[in-house]
Each structure stands twice: as C-alpha cells, then as structure tokens.
Amino acid sequence: MLSINNLSVYFTGRYLFDNVTFLITERDRAGLVGKNGAGKTTLLRIINGEQQPEGGTVTKPNDLQIGYLPQEIVTTGAGTIFEEALNAFDAVLKLKAESEQISIEIAERTDYDADSYLHLINRLHENEERFRLLGGHEMEGETEKILLGLGFRPADFNRRLAEFSGGWRMRVELAKLLLRRPGLLLLDEPTNHLDIESIQWLEEYLKSFSGAVIVVSHDRAFLDNVTNRTIEISMGRIYDFKTSYSGYVELRESMREQQQAAYSNQQRQLADIERFIERFRYKATKARQVQSKMKLLDKIERVEVDDMDKSAIHFRFPPAPPSGKVVVEAVSLAKFYGHHRVFSDVDFAIERNDFVAFVGRNGEGKTTLAKILAEGLDHNGECSIGHNVKIGYYAQNQADLLDQERTVFQTIDDVAVGDIRPKVRNILGSFLFSGEDIEKKVKVLSGGEKSRLALAKLLLSPVNLLILDEPTNHLDMISKDILKNALLMFDGTLIVVSHDRDFLQGLTQKVFEFRDGKVKQHIGDIYDFLEKRRIATLDQLGMAAKAAAAGQSEEVSLNKINYEKKRQQEKELRKITGRIEKVEQEIHQLESEIASIDQKLASPENHVEVLADGTIYERYESLKNKLVSAMDDWEALHSELDNFKNAGS
C-alpha cells in the first residue's frame, strides 16, 4: 500500500532518519512513537507529501487518498458546524447540486421525444446512481453520528464554527477526515483536544475503520486500544514491532537484554582469541594456529547493542509545608459568563493529602474551577482556601505565559531566591536544559521544551496544593512517567485536570466529574469512575427492553465488559502495590531519622547540645508516632492486598 525506502532526513546537524525502510499495509494500525524531536511529525509530513527528504523515496498508489490531521491547524470556515463537516462530501454535494439543476431543466422542457431531453434524463439517472454509491443518502446521518461521537451536541450543529475554540475546531477537522474515509489516515496527537468520552468513541471508530492508520500519540491507553503495530524512531533508526505499545515496551527491553547478553558472550570469546594470539604470536611452533585465530577474528561479525535515547526529565517536588485539614471547601459555588452557565450548586471539600482528578467534556468547567481555586477567578457562592495553603499552579497555557524574550536561565533565575539560587543550573539540567540550551530565548523553544521549563518553575518554592491543568500535553512517554512518579511521592494535596487515562490511573483517589453544569464526586481512580459510568449505562437495559416495541435498542458486549472488568482488577492491584511501596519508602525515611536521633542521644559528647535543643525530644516522639501510623497503614494495605487477591481468585 505504502512503501518507505531508504529515507534520510538531515536536521540541525544530525540525521532524524538515516536509510529508514518500512512498509504500511492496508489494515495496519501503527503507532509511531519516540521522544519529542525524534522526527515523528516530520515523517507524517513526508508521507503526506508536504516535505521532501534528503534521500530515499515514498512509494504509494496513485489512487491512494491520504487524510492528515496535524497537531495544529488554522481553520477559517464561515459556515455552521454541520455545514463545515458536510464539506467532507464535496464531490457528493457537487453531484447533488448538478442533479438539482438538471431536474429544473427537465421540469421546464416539453420536447419529451428530443434527443437532448433523453440525454438530460440519462445524466440525471447516472448522477443519482453515483450519488447513491458515494453514500449521498447517508451523508447527513453519518455526519451527525460522528459529530456527536466527537462531543458536539445537537444544539451545536447550527452554531457558527467561528464561535468555537481552537480545540473544538480541530474536532470538526477530524470529523471531516473520518467522513472522507481515506485509505490511509495520519493522526498527529489526535487526543490532545478530546475529552475521555470522545477518546473512547474515537478508539471504537478506528477499530472498525476500513483503511490503514498511522497515529502519533503520547496517550499509552489510546495506543494500546487502537494499534496492532508499533514503529519506534530512536537515534535516527526505526524499530518495528507487530504489537501494541505495551507489548512493544516488553519486546524492546527483552530484545535489548538479548543483545546485551550476546554482546557480552562475544566479547569474552574475542578476548580469549586475542589472549591466545598475544601469548603465542612469537612462537614458531604455534604460527599456524595464530594465523588461523587471526583469520577467525577478522571473520567474526561483531554484535552491536542498539543505542537507546534515555534522556528524560528527572525531579521530585520539594516537601510540602503543613496545612490545615480542609484544603479547599466550596458551598453553592457557581460560575456564569453572561447568561451562559458553566456550573452551579457545586458543593465539595478537598482535604489534606487528597489526590483529585477533574474529568469531563471540554467546556464543562474543569479549567474554570481550577482558575477559581488558583487565581481567584470571579464566581458566585462560596469557595474558601484552607489554613496555610500554598498553591502551585500549572495552567493549560502555562508555557504561553512565559516571557518570550527571557532566556531559559533567566526565566528560572528571576524567581529563584535563597538557597535555591545556586541550584538553578542543576534544576535546569534535571529538565534537560544544559550547555548552550540555557541561553536560548523562550520564544525559540518547542512546545515540549516550554512545558518542561514551566514545570521547572514549580520546584522553586515549596507548596502544599498542586493544581495542574493538562500537564502532560507536550511530554513524551518517559517524561510523563517521571512526572507521575514525582507526583506519587508528593506529600501535599493534588488537583489534576487531564484526559490521559494512563497518567491518571493509580494517581488519584477521587474523581470530580463535570457534566451538564454539575460536579459529581466519585471515590476511586479513573478506571473505577469509567467502570461506574458503564454500569450506569447498563442499568438502563431494562428500560431499553421495554421500549423495544417503539424501535429503541441498545447493544452491549458482555465480553467487552468482562475484559474491562479484568483490566480494571489488574490496574487496582497495581495501584495497591504502588501505595505499599510509597508507605515503605516513608517507613524507611522515618526509621533513618529516628536512628540518627538515637545515635545523638546515646553519645555523651552530644549531651550539652541535646540539652540546648529543647525540641529534640518532641521531634523524636513525633517521628515515632508517625512511624507507628505508617506501620499501621502498611499492615492495612497488605490486608487490603490479600483481600483483593482472595476476592479475585
């Protein structure tokens, strides 16, 4: 279907690709993965014909239609949402307009026996047949179905495209691509502008899509649910695996381990041969054996271990200052923009050490509530921040709020104070800014680099309430995992707005669902919430059965439900295990601090210092109490783990 042959692209002093070759077949569902800057978007642009490589060719059939959704696109349509989506059927619409004109001409004619009249009749018949074959009779139904799946409401269909944000306009472009049904669909980060429900709908749609799909995404769950092949770009080379992303991760690591083992064995073999040659090089009686060994040494094909790009951000958040038990509390909270209600009658309390996910359709108020909490955005009702709460806020457009004319170093140095100032370069190094990079101006950074710089600023002052609005949008897989691990170790309170299910899984214990102007609380992580939503849908089966006579029905796949239940159980097991590891690290830290004080109290030379420090005994008792509490938590978690395993067996 499409063949990439010896492709080479040279960019900023290095090869993005060097003699890359692979083939895309008709039903492939390929995930294109690699670090930011590896060349994924460049490869999609070359396949789409927008960019030419330095070397190599892209071979494809002349009749292959390619649909390409870039990360960013400028939309200028003046019509309504429905009209703009219908433009996907431009050929069908032209046929329809032509047929209407022919019908008008036929209605005005009376010379029924004339050849020209018969010619018009034949043209109308041919047009109507083509109209039918091209799906003209179904185009409006298909358009409605796809717009609804991508999150639009029927009331949105007649609103002008210009009224919507860039993210919603991108959904219209995606709808047009899906309606055109190209032979090859190229999607560059399609989930960036979708909410969880729309992402799940798109997953189901792509599974039944008749053409081939190449998708770039940092959403691991999306890749696992859509793809059956993973193509990795790393260090200018291509690694091709016939499996989804999770399977690729395991195979890639296994392949590297095998390479390393083969390399080590060969190095020992080469060393033995070289020692023999050196030992007997000058002995005439061994000359033939030495020559034989030297020829053998030249013939051995050297085993190589693939280079892996392991550069990634690495950091942990500073310890959180103590805060009151209630961190945030809202009573009858509401937000209106003019006559438009975002949400109303919202009541909740977020307590110390709660980890909360804000989820829901775009436009339902997740970011608005985050701004009310972090920036004091105007609102109705009560919203109070608790005692001694210090907020760290990462806005969805945080990268755009940076001073574009400052350098990377200046951006951090401007806000660094006290003991942090000498550590600015180390902090930047943890976020992959080193050498000349720290002197770059913000305006020349990529989206991912700006996001990393904005995250780095969060480390400069200790906070006990982190509010993060879509923090993973521009991060690669490895960096997302490191951010998630850092958040798991954060000892404050977390509110995170995200549509990335894999990132949220095991991270939060509460989900705030934004829907139809209300905010509903759910206990558990994101997959607990998604399972509850499915159960809520299944509860309607009885109603659907009663309404069957009226033509209403609902299809439910029990196999899928069982599969999702099993997957959820596996995720719950990982979540409990992760919490146990976190408590064990806390116990280790407390035991170390207690041992240090024990040593100080036991040493006679520290007697005067101990007496002078009036707080040492209070700290000692406090640490021991915390240790007892942590041990209780550890026992409770192990009991929970045993019960969970017994329930599943």
TrEMBL record:
InterPro entries: AAA+_ATPase, ABC_tran_Xtn, ABC_transporter-like_ATP-bd, ABC_transporter-like_CS, ABCF_ATPase, P-loop_NTPase, Val-tRNA_synth_C_sf. Keywords: ATP-binding, Coiled coil, Nucleotide-binding, Repeat. PROSITE patterns: ABC_TRANSPORTER_1, ABC_TRANSPORTER_2. SMART domains: AAA. Residues 2-260, 328-541 form the ABC transporter domain. It holds the Pfam family ABC_tran. The keyword ATP-binding applies. Residues 566-600 form a coiled coil. PANTHER family: ABC TRANSPORTER ATP-BINDING SUBUNIT, DRUG RESISTANCE ABC TRANSPORTER,ATP-BINDING PROTEIN. Belongs to the ABC transporter superfamily. ABCF family. YbiT subfamily. This is Probable ATP-binding protein YbiT.
